Amino acid sequence: MRLYSTLFKDHKFIAKLYFGTALGMLLLGFGIALIMRWQLAYPGSPLPVLGHWLDPNHAWMPGGVLQPEFYNQLVAMHGSIMVFFAVVPILLGGFGNYLVPLMLGAPNLAFPRLAFLGYLSYLTGALTVLTSFFTRGGPASAGWTSYPPLSVLDSPGQSFWLAGMLLVYLSSLAISVNLLVSIVQLRAPGMHFMRLPYFVWSQGVAAFLLLLSFPSLAAASLLQWMDRATGSSFFLPSGLVMGGETVEAAGGGSALLWQHLFWFLAHPEVYVLLLPALGIIAEIIPNNARRPLWGYRGMVYATLFLGLMSFLVWAHHMYLTNMGAVLSRFFQVTTTIISVPSIVIGSSLVVTLWGGAIRFTPPMLFALAFLPLFAIGGLTGLPLALPSTNIVLHDTFYVVGHFHYIVVGGTLFAVFAGIYYWFPKVTGKRMSTLLAHLHFWPSLLLVNGIFFHMLLQGMAGVPRRMYDGGITYAHGQEMAHLHGIVTISAYLFALAQLPFIINLIWSRYRGRPAGKNPWHGVTLEWSAPSPPLRHGNFRHPVQVHRGPSEYSVPRSQQDFSPQHEGDGP
Amino acid sequence: MRRRHLPHDIHPRRDTGQYNARLGLWLTLASLVMFLAALYSAYAMLRYNTDNWAAFRVTLSPGWGLVGLVFQCAIAMLMPWGWRQACDGRFWMAWSGLGICLLLGLLALGNFSRQMYGLAQDGLAPARHNFYALFHLFTGVQMLFIGIGMFFCVVYLLSPGNKQYRLRNRMECLGIYLHFVAAAGGLHFTLFYVL
After folding, report:
1. How far is the C-alpha of A104 from the C-alpha of A186, rounded, in Å?
2. Are A252 and B130 in contact (CB < 8 Å)?
3. Of A219, A254, A535, which has the smallest distance from its Cβ to B2's Cβ?
4. Mind listing the domains of chain B with CATH numbers?
5. Counting beta carbons within 10 angstroms of the beta carbon of residue A245, is it exposed (0 to 12), middle (13 to 18) or buried (19 or more)?
6. Nearest CA of chain A to the CA of B164: how many Å?
7. Does residue A20 sit within a domain?
8. In this complex, do B13 and A257 lie within 8 Å of one another by their Cβ atoms?
9. Span A151-181, pLDDT tens digits
10. A257 contacts in B (CB within 8 Å)?
11. Which CATH number is A112's domain given?
12. Residue A540 Cα, gap to closest chain B Cα (Å)
């Protein structure tokens, strides 16, 4: 009972649970990607190390050689794990649950018990999907998008995937309601909306997107579950033939219905992955440039506009479905428009650096690397907004490269930046700068080694869904050697994460004491003890007197003016 | 800084006019509205793509559907009355309101079960046609919504610390939720018995 009242109702503990679980899922998803990459680079060759341990009669990987069916399952699991169980939970469940109440000057989240229930729902969903590895037929194999009719006729693992999605919906509902109510209701006196740190805005808009977009996938999952469990035909058209045999179903359904419902979630989900990352970067850059965030209001309005527009672009993922010129044109225009607020936000971050006294701390290195990587990811998305170029590039590695530049080069680098930045606040200890450099420089090099070559392959037309990496195609053969570079870069990228893991564990126990405000930050979390108090976070009630990024204020005695400090008598 | 309650847990915040639970509930309802909107758009797309949709009918009397709807509306209308009683300090009256709601909710669930069972008895299972699949799905979802409401009725009835402010806020939130459920029930009835 005491454990319940002290830990499970504490937003910081719940956030750490999210962090731990989601980082575990991140490693798992990355491990799956490494197995896939080996197959793409060296088709039919046994996996190194692991291959020697596997039985020659192993169902999925006899003698360590990946089978086509299992490759498809790994593709589906990699995407699902990374998007639903790793990155979003880290950003909102981890960073959001931990930092938003602190930045608001609040003692806790608005509904701490709901936050814990949300975590349990997330954990159950993740375990449900992972359990499908042990079912007959293995996990879902229809990709992370689960397109029907393939998914409807898939192995029982697909039902586990659907159950997992419904549970993740409940979890995201808990997270988003909690964050939004906390932001609106629990702001400290003086913290009006235009004094909220940009991080809080980004979390709020991301929570709002999650709140309104995830129900679409929940409904679609329910419909698909009906198709699988009761024999209905929501997604099965009449006269469907699979493997030369007519599928026995009433028919009358539409496979495109799933795509609409899925992408109505999945495109806003991209901004759920991106906005909190921008929020992290927008805290770190002003702090390390010792300059106020340039164009704060513009960034806030751009974020709100971006959130709104993200509901109006989903069908640009469906240009190949013959949706017609009028609809294509509409989604082309909306997709092009949505790049405007992204550029406003990115430009504001760059301009913030102008004239600053930049400190190249580990979080700042990751934040600086984020800017070009995010820019490459964003700009390579523009050709995909236009139907004429999208049709050529859609099924190629170009899309994989573009998306991963956003999610790995952008979001994951922001996650690393955030961890280096707030680790002293969470643990009271500093992280090792040497290990951080050993982590950063190889990662920066190798992330480009992985994804830039995918862009090149994609522009040459190498298809992205082939088990053998597309070597059966003539144009694929010309670019096949790049698979090797990508794969070696991916394995080295995995090695480059070791200093980070060592740093995380070593610094937790042996790190130097950090003090209350090691970075000389101005937002409210830096006025709390490190780590913050278990009950109520702050020693004294907090009053806010100024904006969220007041660095180098003229006539100020120091180069930072914390939000909780007034101008004095 | 130990606090017994979080800020605005009980009393509304001055600038927003909301206490936490009510705002949280409105946000949850927004999400549920999107959930229903996704289901309704599936209904619209499937109906648009089917030539002979009008040939399919629920073989039950519309009266049964109407009875279910009346139950849900009665539950929704009872809650503001219970909330008023709680505000005036007549807790036993408020609790009795919760009890009646629970009873009516169980009757509504029984009525929906009867509709689904009746349809299945006539061989009109989800596999027969998407119309019946949608009927079963929407009815199931409606039953889930009512079941959630009834769950909270039971929790509030059994809750030992039911002080005035708690009961007042709880009944208000449950009332808002049950109004949403009744509105969804109205749409459900219209889709399958009227249109």
Report:
1. 7
2. yes
3. A535
4. 60-194 (1.20.120.80)
5. exposed
6. 20
7. yes
8. no
9. 999 889 999 999 999 999 999 999 999 999 9
10. 42, 45-46
11. 1.20.210.10
12. 6
Q: Taking each helix axis as running N to C, give the angle between helix A157-185 and helix A112-131, from 0 to 180 degrees, rounded to the nearest 10.
A: 160
> What is the rounded (10 degree) CA torsion for A40, A46, A48, A53?
140
Measured in whole angstroms, how far is the alpha carbon of residue A226 from the centre of its chain?
29
Longest CA–CA span in chain B (Å) reads: 67
Chain B positions touching chain A (beta carbons under 8 Å): 1-3, 6-8, 13, 16, 18-21, 23-24, 27-28, 30-32, 34-39, 41-42, 45-46, 49-50, 125-130, 133, 136-137, 141
DSSP H or E run through A402:
helix A397-404
Residue A220 zone, left/alpha/beta (φ > 0; ψ -120 to 50; rest): alpha
Query: Would you state the pLDDT for residue B2?
Result: 46
- Decide if A212 and B31 are in contact by the 8 Å CB cutoff: yes
What residue type is A426 in one-letter code? V
Kindly report each contact of residues A558-563 with a partner whose C-beta sits within 8 Å and lies 24 or more positions away, as own/partner.
A558/A520, A559/A290, A559/A357, A559/A520, A560/A290, A560/A520, A560/A521, A560/A522, A561/A522, A562/A517, A562/A521, A562/A522, A562/A523, A562/A524, A562/A526, A562/A527, A563/A191, A563/A195, A563/A522, A563/A523, A563/A524, A563/A527
Q: Cβ-count burial of A21 within 10 angstroms (0-12 exposed, 13-18 middle, 19+ buried)? A: buried
Q: Is the pLDDT of residue A4 over 70?
A: no
CB A532 within 8 A of CB A538: yes
Domain count, chain A: 1
Structure-token match 């939130």, residue found: B173
Residue A220 touches partner B, C-beta closer than 8 Å: yes
- Whether residue A241 lies inside any domain: the answer is no
Give residues 532 to 561 of A whose Cβ lies within 8 Å of B.
533, 535-541
Q: Which domain holds residue A433?
A: 2-232+254-527
pLDDT band for position B90 (50/70/90)? confident
Tell me how far apart the alpha carbons of residues A27 and A54 are, in angstroms, rounded to a whole number: 21
CA nearest A208 in B: which residue?
B27
Mean predicted confidence (pLDDT) in A472-498: 91
- Name the residue with tokens 């020697």: A52
CA-nearest residue of chain B to A186? B7
Q: Is residue A139 part of a domain?
A: yes
Distance from the B66 Cα atom to the nearest Cα atom in chain A, whole angstroms: 26
Instruction: Judge whether A99 lies within some domain.
Output: yes
**Which member of B38, B49, B126 has the closest CB to residue A230?**
B126
